[in-house]
Structures
1.
Amino acid sequence: MSGKENALSRLPIMSAKRPAAAASSNTSGSSMESTGQPAQKKQRREAEPARPKAALSTAPVRRPPAASVSRAPRATGAATVAAAPSRGVLRKTVASVAPRGGARPAAAASSSNKAGAGGAVAAAVGGRRPGWDMRGKVSDMQAKLQSLQSRDRTAKEETLELRGAAASAQQRAAQLGEELEGQRGQLSAYRGELAEVRGELEREASERRGLQRELGGLQEAHKVVLTLRDSQELELQAGRAKLLAQGSSLELLQASLQQLQASLQQREQEVRLLQDTVGQQKDALHAGEMERRQLHNTLQELKGNIRVFCRVRPLVGGGPSPHILLPPDDHKALVLARSEESHVGRTGDTQKTYNFSFDRVFGPSASQQEVFEEISLLVQSALDGYNVCCFAYGQTGSGKTFTMEGGDSDAAVGVIPRAVQQVFLAAHKLGAQGWEFSFTASFVEVYNESLRDLLYTGKGGKRPEHEIRKSAANEISVTNLTYQKVATEGQVQNLIAIANQNRSTAQTTLNDRSSRSHSVFQLDIQGENAGRDVRCKSTLCLVDLAGSERVLKSQAQGERFKEMTAINGSLSNLGLVITALANKESHIPYRNSKLTYLLQSCLGGNSKTLMFVNIAPEPDSFGESLNSLRFASKVNDCFVGTASANKK
Ligand SMILES: Nc1ncnc2c1ncn2[C@@H]1O[C@H](COP(=O)(O)OP(=O)(O)OP(=O)(O)O)[C@@H](O)[C@H]1O
């Protein structure tokens, strides 16, 4: 039996009042006479049916299962104790109930039996003994004492039992505490597990949320992919439709391509025919060009290979010149007139006139353009392979430089810049017929029978010396001279500017030097028509001569006399050379002066020469004008043999 059950089984001992109550209900029952346990059992068995319902209802709950053990009567009482008030109350009750004999001790029972009067006990309990009944009273007291003693023992036993039960209960409590600790440990283990499970659950939940997000993203992406796929399918369909359309248009294109190829073949045939025609026309053009050159040359020959133009400068201050007459209807005549005193004396002054005729006479009002038009044909001859020389002759201030170089304005541009412009324009046009030209320019000054390079650009130091050389092919060249390749008109203009700069520098050291020097501009022209295997070579020579004043008139002395002598010598020699050429003399005195030597190739039979004779209109220039016009007439009368182009 367990401690708990044992404790419960002992509890009925402290409630002896039930048997007492039962005994009281059976007032004089014979069972009361016996104090042994079997009697109690018997009494209980008999009393049980009359047990109050409240006792019945509580007893089964608290009654231990082993109620049939030897102490069963106490167990019966235990039911009462369970439903009874506290122990203090119980004692009081016992004290008050005991006399009624419910749990009366055996001594009391025996004393009452000895007295033989059940009525005495009843008197002790329920009523008072008469004063005289001392014995009875003693007996009652003894009975009471016995009862109390019995109760005391019972109480002690109960105390011991209760202590045992308390120890058991403590032991049980300790056990339960241990169990509780164990269960707590288990609980905390369970809690740990629970926390782990919760953590795991949270992780899983978090993972799940992540997966859900991922799933959401994938679903979105899937939607996008689906949309893309739909649009691509649409595009594919459109592309297929386009492809079909292109296929059909390709067929059309192929058909039209075949047509085009057929028409291309036809066109190619036409092109071949046209090319043949173009070739024929080019041949015709070339033949026409050659014919033009021949006719041009014939015309120039008819005009004369040495031509002389006369140009009269305007009077300073304007107005007509009193001694120069220009017949208005004759552009080739000029009359120089002057009154001369009669030597006879009878007739007064006589009008002396000098008539001159030239290839062309330009009056003071003639423009630069007008003058150039007359010589532009000669410039064309230079490109056709003829040497061309154009020079201006006249006294100082007669307008030589103005004629050759001109002024600053466009209208005042002179022969040299206009000729250069025409050369490059004509060369460009001939390029269309297969001609290619190259040009080399030089600019030289002849002063006091020495040469000076006008294109020299060196700084300081002694300028190089120059000598005229003649090659085996009778080509004239100057040593140390600048021969500058040029390809455009602008480049030539730059060279002219350099020459002017050089001349003005020299002018500061020697006053009015330009009037006393000859300046010679030369443009060597080389042309080639590779397709026709034709080449040509020529020189365009443009010369501004020094003033032609006579030494006597100028009354020059010293250095100036030397200058004038050199000038006159070279100009006289120029006249001699031209005359010798005209007379077809065997010896032409080119080498008598630097000027004629330099101009040798331009003055020979293979050249076309144009001379300007410039006239100053002032009356005091009459004598110089007369001399110039006479010189020019002499040149004009020369007939130099037929020129031939330098062609291969
Ligand atoms: N046809 C003309 N129309 C207008 N002005 C002219 C004409 N000819 C010459 N002149 C002017 O006359 C002046 C002298 O002319 P230019 O210098 O050309 O003479 P030149 O003969 O060259 O003299 P030099 O021998 O000293 O060089 C210049 O101022 C020039 O502008």
2.
Amino acid sequence: MAKLVRRTLALVAHDLKKDEMVEFARTHRTILARFNLVATGTTGGRVLAACPELSLTPLKSGPLGGDQQIGALIAEGQVHGLFFFVDPLSPLPHDVDVKALTRLALVYDIPMALNASTAHMIVGQLVD
Ligand SMILES: O=C(CO)COP(=O)(O)O
């Protein structure tokens, strides 16, 4: 019998990592299609352009509060995995938001991949 409630994954990628996120989504589109997805604004737009069949809700862009929106969803128990492709080499105006988001994923002990190689390893292990 079909499940009524799908679990939710969050997708976030910094600008220099967005191509990797699109490739990740394309590669695993069949798995990702079993989940509801939320994403920061620009990341979500890029992923939806590549994989329009996915059930993805874009939130605000990261620097405008998107990381914090995803953090709030994590705190409310509504996100069950975080794929956050972080750019460690570029300064970011919203660095504190990035830290807050990864901190909440740790606090609530949700699976979190901070780079593409980890994401490819864990995406098939998530329970939908
Ligand atoms: O800045 C981000 C995460 O910190 C990503 O935001 P965008 O997906 O809107 O570019």
